[in-house]
C-alpha cells in the first residue's frame, strides 16, 4: 500500500482546498490555480513509491511544489525576450506537457490495465507480447492482471447475487466502516478481494490496487475514518446499492461493490472531483443511513 497516500477523505479534501487557495492567491486566477494544482499532483505521482513514503509532510511538499510552479508562470518571458530564449521555453513547455500527459494517465492505469489484460489475453487471444505492449506492463505482470480479473469475473458469473442480498451486504459494509469494525469488515470480503481507487490525479489517494481482506479493510477504514463533518450512506450506485461519502454537503467519494453471494469481491472507489461533479449538482443528502458518523473522542 502507498502509505503516504492512505489518508482520510476529509484530509484529502482539505488538502486540495488548501492547495487551490495557495495557488489562487499567488496567481489571482481560479482557472490557472486548478491547472497548477493538477500539475502538482501529477508531479507527486511522478515520484516513486519509496520517495513518496519518505515525505513526512505531503501537504507541505505539495504547497512548495505548487508555489514553484506559480513562480515559474509569473516569470514567463516578456514580449521583448529574445527569439532564441522564447524557442527554448517553447521546447521546454512542449516537453513538460508531454511528461504531464503521461503522469496524468499513470494513476488511473492500474484498474483499466487489469481489465484490458483480461480482455486482450483471455477474450481476444492476443499474443502475450502484444498484450504487454498495449497495456504497458511486463508480460509476467500482464498474466497476473489477466488471471486476477478472470477470477473475479468467473466468481461473479458463477454466483450472481440477488439485489436484496447485495443490499444487505452493502449495508453491512457501511456499518462496519462507520463503527470502524475491522473484524466485521474483513468477514464481508473475499480472501482475494481487491480495491481500486480512482483519484484522477486530482487528489492524493492510493494509486495502486489493494489486495486481500486485511489490506482492503485497512484502506477503507483509513479512507473513511470518523470525522465530525463526514457521513457515509448507502445509495444506488450504477444500479446497485453502494456507498456515498459526504464531507459537509459535498459528495467526496462514491464506492461501488462487486459482490458474489455474501462476500465483496471488488471495491471501486471514485474520488476524482471531475467524475463526482454530477453527484454534486443539486443533489440532496440520501435519506436513511446518511447521518453523520460518530465524531472522534
Automatic annotation (TrEMBL):
Record InterPro entries: ECF_Sigma-70_Domain, NTF2-like_dom_sf
Region (Disordered): 278-297
Protein name listed in UniProt: RNA polymerase subunit sigma
Organism (species): Streptomyces sp. 900105755
Amino acid at each position: 500500500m502507498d502509505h503516504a497516500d492512505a489518508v482520510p477523505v476529509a484530509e484529502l479534501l482539505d488538502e486540495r482546498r488548501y492547495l487551490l487557495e495557495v495557488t489562487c492567491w499567488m496567481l489571482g486566477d481560479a482557472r490557472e490555480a486548478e491547472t497548477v494544482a493538477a500539475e502538482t499532483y501529477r508531479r507527486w505521482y511522478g515520484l516513486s513509491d519509496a520517495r513518496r513514503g519518505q515525505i513526512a509532510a505531503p501537504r507541505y511538499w505539495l504547497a512548495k511544489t505548487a508555489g514553484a510552479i506559480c513562480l515559474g508562470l509569473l516569470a514567463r518571458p516578456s514580449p521583448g525576450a529574445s527569439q532564441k530564449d522564447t524557442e527554448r521555453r517553447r521546447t521546454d513547455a512542449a516537453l513538460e506537457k508531454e511528461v504531464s500527459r503521461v503522469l496524468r494517465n499513470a494513476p488511473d492505469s492500474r484498474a483499466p490495465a487489469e481489465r484490458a489484460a483480461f480482455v486482450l489475453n483471455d477474450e481476444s487471444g492476443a499474443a502475450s507480447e502484444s498484450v504487454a505492449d498495449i497495456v504497458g506492463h511486463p508480460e509476467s505482470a500482464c498474466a497476473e492482471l489477466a488471471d486476477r480479473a478472470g477470477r473475479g469475473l468467473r466468481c461473479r458469473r458463477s454466483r450472481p447475487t440477488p439485489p436484496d442480498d447485495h443490499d444487505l451486504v452493502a449495508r453491512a459494509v457501511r456499518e462496519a466502516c462507520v463503527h470502524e469494525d475491522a473484524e466485521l469488515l474483513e468477514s464481508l470480503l473475499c480472501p482475494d478481494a481487491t480495491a481500486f481507487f480512482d483519484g484522477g490525479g486530482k487528489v492524493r489517494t492510493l494509486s495502486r490496487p489493494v489486495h486481500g481482506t486485511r489490506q482492503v479493510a485497512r484502506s477503507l477504514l483509513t479512507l473513511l475514518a470518523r470525522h465530525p463533518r463526514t457521513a457515509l450512506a448507502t445509495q444506488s450506485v450504477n444500479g446497485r446499492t453502494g456507498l456515498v461519502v459526504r464531507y459537509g454537503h459535498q459528495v467526496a467519494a462514491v464506492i461501488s461493490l462487486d459482490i458474489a453471494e455474501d462476500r465483496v469481491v471488488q471495491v471501486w472507489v471514485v474520488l476524482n472531483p471531475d467524475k463526482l461533479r454530477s453527484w454534486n449538482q443539486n443533489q440532496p443528502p440520501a435519506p436513511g443511513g446518511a447521518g453523520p458518523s460518530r465524531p472522534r473522542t
